[in-house]
Amino acid sequence: MLDNALRFLSLADANVRFVLLGSLLIGATGGMLGSFAVLRRRSLLGDALAHAALPGVALAYLATGSKALPVLLVGATLAGIVGVLAIQFITQFTRIKADSAIGIVLSVFFGIGIVLLTHIQRSGGGNQSGLDKFLFGQAASMVGDDLVVMTSLTAIIMLAVLAFYKEFKALIFDPGFLSALGFSARRVDALLMGLIVLTVMVGLQAVGVVLIAAMLITPAVAARFWSERLGTMVVVSTVFGGVAGAVGTFISSLAPRIPTGPVMVLVATFFFVVSAICAPRRGALARWRRHRQNAAREQRHHFLRAHVELSDKERRGIFASSSLAAELGWKASRVERLGRKLARQGYVRRSGGRWELTEKGFEEGVFIVKSHRLWEHYLYHRSILDADHVDRPADEVEHLLTPEIIAHLEQIVAEERGINPDQVVNIHGTLSHYRKGGRE
Amino acid sequence: MSDSVRPQGEVAPIQIHDMTIAYHKKPVLWDVDLDVPEGVLVGIIGPNGAGKSTMIKAVMDLIPKASGWVKIYDRPYDQMRSAIGYVPQRESVDWDFPVNALDVVLMGRYGHVGWVRRPSGEDRRLAAEALDKVGMSEYAHRQISQLSGGQQQRVFLARALAQDARIYMMDEPFAGVDAATERAIIDILIELRSQGKTILVVHHDLQTVTEYFDWVIMLNMRVVAAGPTREVFTDENLQKTYGGRLTVLSQAAQAMADHRRGN
Asked: What pLDDT sits at residue A161?
């Protein structure tokens, strides 16, 4: 195996170089166009297109007797386009919805393709067997001539994407607006669809009709986790696809009879899984961490607010867990646990078995109480505040109010209710008392 | 020829002649015959399914006309596309799309940029300016799904402003926005009007019609009435538009219910 790896990495073998370059190109174009296809919700259409290409390959061979890649790809392209048109026809002129139409066309065309391949296999001469590589792909069969075809197609695709990037972006986001601007949305859409067709054709020989859609969908979906802008997504997706192609080729070179196409798809899937879990912000771990942090902050707020409210009522600043538990409606053991955690974080400290707020805890507690009371004032008097500040679920609001919003609320309360903002928390003389009673 | 570019309102910005729109051969809007004067703020009102959105989409050739024609400043629409700015319904797009607010506004410049070419620095400056005008500068680099409904609507308005048009078509710009955004939008519409622009707004809140619009088009699958709000926005016309049995109040309730449903 080590021998194989070294031979691969030295790139001494011309065939290895062809296969590596081919897979790289397939992965990269798949990733690039996949971004647009996925965002345009055309990924399934890409799959149907690929399956529909199979009878085209067989018919091209039957018609010409040639197995040259350009000939077969022309057949594949035509059949693919017929398939896509059939889907559009069905959805437009019958009540059948797009998903069913795609399912019907995909299986019918694929079925015809298999029948034709079997027929060719049984009846033809000695050189017929090569066609079945289009089923699951055979990267090792790529030769220099094929590479020329693939490289040219890839160049066309990438140049077209560069040229029409702005049009594609506007088309996918808001086709109606693109038309209103004077562009023909239908032409831009047809162009994008044409590029998706070409992309599928580039990968047909090496990855096969069954799996090529995965090279369109998976890198793009993985890239979306890392990017909030289309340009970034396209670049990341292209890199994911290209790397999946190269690494897939390398892995399949390690031992005989590891098929390249499926391994490429598996590597891309690995990128997807890692992205879905680890990506910052959109990944599962980041979401989980955010959720945990929010929950922890809410708990802390409850504790601190209860402490400040209680000190307001009872005119002292040190409370046992049981008193806080009564205020919160919690079990004392829960208060105890939370208190210990907050003590570690420096919000509270033990004072004779009871809880006292630290400077940090005191400040935050007062802020929470103030937010809460201001919010109540606001809700009660239904003043006008920018809705982008208020349209959050009401029960979460007190934990989300920022100093900026608090300042705004203070202003409103001061203007409309004639209340000095300092009095909002000081209504019962809480704070001065707290400082006196609690700190000594 | 030169008439069509003369700023004073001798030539109607929008002439609609005998326009009928049909979906699958079933007419949804009949025989619209209208001349909209220049420099007015027009409210398009009517019940659900009255053809309000359909009308502005048909004017912009976004849906085919069964019959009739539209002229913009006395010229065919095709030659005058860049004269019209468009604010589609906010729900018509996927806000999870990976672009930021400034990217969206920049799309308003694409018509001026043309095929294949890249937006210039000047286009970017105009887009930033439009974003500033709607009070969204500080959100320029925010991904659009992280904006509130009101902010998204402001971005759409900024995109239309970036189009730098003479006529604006707006499909429910006030739907689901907060009071502050509604105020901000109407202020901008009034400013546009003072610059001699003509603005058509699909609107649902009957209570604000007289306050906001100096012209009104009342639709119910046909034009029930169209003209200066003071003359046309009457109880009688409201009853014709919203159906005889309804009182104005229940019409308003209906309008609000529609509004909530986002239609």
From this structure: 97
